[in-house]
Amino acid sequence: MNDLYKKIRKTVSPVYRHWEMLVKIAWYRAHVGRIIESVRQKGRIRVAFLTVNLSMWKCEELFRLLLEDDLFDPVMVPMPRPMFNWEAEKEEQNRLMDYCRQNGFPYIPGYDYDKNTFNGYEAIKPDVVFYSQPYSNASYKAHRVEEFWKKCIFFYVPYCFIIENEAAFVDTLYVNICQNVFLENEMVRSIECGMATNKGRNFIVTGYLGARKLLVHDESDSQAWKMQSTDVKRIIWAPHHSILNKDILNYSNFLDIADDMLSLAHEYNGRVQFAFKPHPGLKPKLYDHPEWGKERTDRYYAEWNDMPNSILAEGSYERLFRSSDAMIHDCSSFTVEYLYTGNPVMYVTKDDHLDYLNDFGKACFDVHYKGKTISDIRSFIDNVVLDGQDPMRMIRSEFVDKNLMLDDMRTPEQIIADIMKNVCVYGK
């Protein structure tokens, strides 16, 4: 009887969730005109960016642009998420608040740890809401779409390139009710239109917001690394968080190579400096993993931080990318983003990675070096990075020029700010 119940629930639940989303989309569409008109009557438009970590924060330049405009009143809301370890999420929220203070950005903590209370709509009172991820149901109740949608307009800048053939990353309530979703290129828009319930009626191609920060070098970029006594190559290792069998993607092999990568860093001391750049979701999963736990995880992260030829990079990564020589990774968005640097990049595969990817993802994956083992990684370091044998250099360059650059003279941030004015101020 119990097995029958599980089968019925497995069949019915997706259908119920789909119809529930259709009803919510219809409700918001019926009310959004009134909401926009109400927002237009205000002197300044309060724009809240509900943010989960620095790595997924793609709106810094947009935030600065809005700060300079008298029409807007932007505020960041660093917030914890319920699916991750509470202590790790507190650490991440504190890191975000430090970032806001350093940059002079107004902010309201999503959770007040002193008062043990969430700061939701009444504390923030936004007119416009940006989430850094499209999964509102992965937020605590106080920060979900339904807590804001009676009075707010929604926009979305994707926190990463969607390269997987998985509708769950696109077809969410938030994406479907957004006034606009700002996408990176026409290939991405075409693919995601076929995934969304609303068929992408609100999708606009503006270009990738993070592109400029990956392309424009700064003299201070090298400060992201430790000073070395001799010239060495700088290699980033960026493992993804998808280490569990229950994960939607489950394509990271971090658990298989974690200790070997540490040994590799020791082996190349004097020739290579490594940056351990884990996905922010990896640490909370390791904290809860039966074979790792908090003590082993903290010790592992600390070793990367303490070795003379390695660093631990847990915050933003643009300077790190710009000042590096190569990257080894299994992160989906980095499959696209690192290509902007022009540097050689290796994807460490697990099983048949192509099974996960959409056509855009496959095209990006094709311009990577690939490997599965520590031996493959060592070969990439020796031959491509240290010896400079990089036959894919021109292929990567041509791919970036053709697929990742737009002709519009305005920056993506300027395009988005203009669209927001048209909607929130001029009612266009």
Description:
It is built from 16 helices and 14 strands. The protein is α/β, with parallel strands linked by helices and 428 residues long. The longest helix is centred in the N-terminal third of the chain and has 39 residues, at 2-40. It is globular and about 65 Å long. Residues 4-9 have low confidence and may be disordered.
Mean pLDDT: 90
Residues in helices, as a percent range: 40-55%
Largest sheet geometry: 6 strands, parallel
Q: Total number of β-strand segments?
A: 14
User: Structural class of the helices, strands and pairings?
Assistant: alpha/beta
Distance between the termini: 56 Å
Number of helices: 16
Any idea of the CATH class of the largest domain? Alpha Beta
Q: Strand fraction band?
A: 5-15%
What is the gyration radius calculated from CA atoms?
22 Å
Give the overall silhouette. Answer: globular
Q: What labels describe this entry?
A:
single chain; 428 residues; alpha/beta; Rossmann fold; 6-stranded parallel sheet; 41% helix; globular
Task: Summarize the helices and strands and which ones pair or pack.
Blueprint: H1 2-40, E1 45-51, H2 60-67, E2 72-78, H3 86-103, E3 111-112, E4 117-118, H4 121-124, E5 128-131, E6 153-156, H5 173-177, E7 180-183, H6 186-193, E8 203-205, H7 211-215, E9 233-238, H8 254-267, E10 272-276, H9 282-287, H10 293-306, E11 310-312, H11 318-322, E12 326-329, H12 334-337, E13 345-348, H13 359-365, E14 369-371, H14 374-386, H15 393-403, H16 412-424
Parallel strand pairs: 1-2, 1-5, 5-6, 6-7, 7-8, 9-10, 9-12, 10-11, 12-13, 13-14
Antiparallel strand pairs: 3-4
Helix pairs in contact: 2-16
